[in-house]
Design brief:
Elements lengths: L1 E13 L2 E6 L4 E8 L2 E11 L4 E20 L4 E21 L7 E25 L8 E18 L4 E12 L2 H4 L9 E13 L1
Antiparallel strand pairs: 1-4, 1-10, 2-3, 3-5, 4-5, 5-6, 6-7, 7-8, 8-9, 9-10
Length: about 200
Amino acid sequence: MTYYVGALGGISTLSGDAGSHLSQQAADSSSYKPDNGAALNVFAGMHLHNWFSLQGNYIRSQNDLLLTSVSSGSNTFYAQTRTSSTQAAVLDFLLYFRSRRSRIRPYLGTGGGVLWLRSRAKRLVASGGVPDLPPSTFSSNRPVFRSHVGIDLRLTRKLDFRYSFSEMIATNTISRELSPPGPSRLKVFQNLFGLVLRF
């Protein structure tokens, strides 16, 4: 059994969402648009076999958001910028497609854990009437499912370069704060690059 630790950094992308409500008296719509941000994945694991590994992760990302809402029934609207950060603790199972003796080792990983999301208002860009604004700060703890693919490239006897593309899926706390709320789950996509040190 071989143990390893590593750290990856890169780009985080959140999925957007939109909600709408139509009636004979009014049409309401809302949405949020995320910007790309920074991501960090620190991990430790063990190679159980030539083809299997178990890995524990701490994952963090931060993204800016633009929330908008329009209500024809109450003649209100707003546009608000926010910052949103996610932190997750995830246990992964990795399946490699080449043995440990190979210099190039593609893998597929999947696992689950807990995701903590916190969002904070930055600036009210525009508003009209008395809109139903989301709280200045809101947060949540939710179960999260993670899947990722990647490749380890051997640099030295103990050191690998790793590329990983991952997706995390959880209940969308941001969408629940829209008015009207959005229907989609939160998806966090990450493109990550870094190093793996084997013992």
